[in-house]
Amino acid sequence: MRASNVTVRRRLFAALVVGTILFFALVVRLAYVQLWAGPELSDKAEESWRRDIRVTAKRGEILDRNGMRLAYNISTPTVLAIPAQIKDPKETAAKLAAVLEMSEESVYKLITKHEKSVYINPAGRKMTMEKAEEVRNLFLPGIRVTEDNKRYYPFGGLAAHVLGFTGIDNQGLTGIELKYDKNLTGINGSISYLATANGKTMPGSNDEYKPPLDGMNLQLTIDGHIQSIMERELDQAMVKYQPKHVIAIAMDPNNGEILAMGSRPGYEPGNYRDYPVENYNRNLPIWMTYEPGSTFKIITLAAALEEKKVNLNESFYDDGAIEVSGARLRCWKRGGHGSETFLGVVENSCNPGFVVMGQRLGKDTLFDYIYKFGFGKKTGIDLGGEENGIMFKPSRVGPVELATTSFGQGVSVTPIQQIAAVSAAVNGGNLFKPHVARAWYKPDSGELVETVQPELVRRVISEATSKQVRETLESVVANGTGRNAFIDGYRVGGKTGTAQKVINGRYSADEHIVSFIGFAPADDPKVVVYAAVDDPQGIQFGGLIAAPLVKNIMEDTLRYMKVPQRKDQLDRKYNYGDTKIVEVPNLIGMTLTDIYEDMNMNFQLAKSGAGKNVINQVPKPGTRVEQGSTIRIYLSDAAPPPETDSKP
């Protein structure tokens, strides 16, 4: 019995010890939970109760150089599901699918996700106001219609390949939208609250609002007016010549700013899915590579003048071809140009003459200048998808390759390389990096954040050589193959190009890329314009197709930019059938008899009023118009006004 009591007491003591230990362990555990882990556990609990509703930040606007909005945001409804608040997922999925025209299965998968909130993609994103009202009228628990932002391009397809477009989440996918996506994209905000497991708001819950931070606004170098001029001409060229493609670029040669850039076929960024993929995934002015043809001769000319390997007054004889290492390289003109100066070689775009320039320079020197002008590598323009172009490897350049390169055959370039290089040739010799971004601004205050500075890559030729190049190319437009780019009142310089396309490794006999690059005024260039037409139907010469295209773009651009006209312009050489530009005479104060006796047949007359004296006329005296234009004279028997200097 005594042994039994001892055993019991021992057991009770052991139980007491164990209980005491457990009690102290529990106390320690509670102390740990309360004092140490409490804040963390409290945060985790709150996190499990907290629900967040995203507040989308506005994407930064894109403006042209004058502040005109080219891309901005508009408010648009979007359906948001909060899975924890949905009472009957199957019924909700059925009703929502019927309105959004989605499958019930896809909607059900979205609204039953273990997430705080879910967008109903794709039909529930960025809907019409009418569709959003239908969703609201369903009164479905856990389904909300929130405000979202949609990218809007107010001018349709204007500058589409420069701007690019965004995806469903306003993320940049192409063009400027992609290149500067990080700066244009803002930081989303949120509205958060505490909710129970069934989704009801917890008593005493205070909503927390974190405002979104909108993206910065980007101003481009693009001028919307010049861009519209260019695209008007591109559209007309597509209709008139039915080419595969047509492209154009306008650039300020003094700083590398792109004033306009476009191509056809085009597309509308807001509806890019409605167009073939090749319309929007290739920015042809920076992506397309091809043999430049005679526009490349400007580089050979600049190098030869800089190295003093040619005198423009030196005589040259072109019999239609030149022999180089057994290869017979022909001039475009059958039978050749005969006796001419090297200035005539440039005016006539004479291939044999440029071969001689290349031979005098030699392989190493010519290719050194080609690389210095930026060919063979990307210009670095701030747009995605730029190509390098293709140059001969120096080790593989023999006499024939040297000869063909000198007149633009056998090499491959991009339009952006062409315009950057020619700009360097005519702006005083400075190669600038092309760019389309101009400045960044804060979205709320409009305060300037950063200005994009011109980036000088290198000096390629001297100012003196550049002046010679300008004067020579002005003569090409006045007297040579570029005459169709002549603009009366402005000194225009430029060069034509006609290159056979390479198809399946062979030169095509009937497919060409015709091009022209021009600049004005020739004494102080303010704009350089390049255009190329891929496989135009009919006659395929750059001087007949691309030169008038550039002329039309440049003429309206110069007037829009208010560039003063020049008085020391070279006179244009007229061929048989050309319409001359003549000056309107002063007819005010003359009688009809005087006019018919003294006036030559350069003009047609239209009369208004009655009487014998001319008291006014349109166009005004001194205006330059095409020969054969009509002058309207206003007649009266009153004495004519006193004579004044009526020339502008």
Rounded mean pLDDT score = 87
Distance between the termini: 140 Å
Radius of gyration: 37 Å
> Stretches where pLDDT falls below 50 for ≥5 residues?
none
Count of distinct strands: 26
Largest sheet data: 7 strands, mixed
What gross morphology would you assign?
A: elongated
Helix coverage percent: 25-40%
Helix segment tally: 20
Percent of residues in β-strands: 15-25%
What structural class do the secondary elements suggest?
Answer: alpha+beta
Question: Short summary of the structure?
Answer:
Helices cover 33% and strands 23% of the residues.
Quickly list its features.
648 residues, alpha+beta, seven-stranded mixed sheet, five-stranded antiparallel sheet, 20 helices, 26 strands, 33% helix, elongated
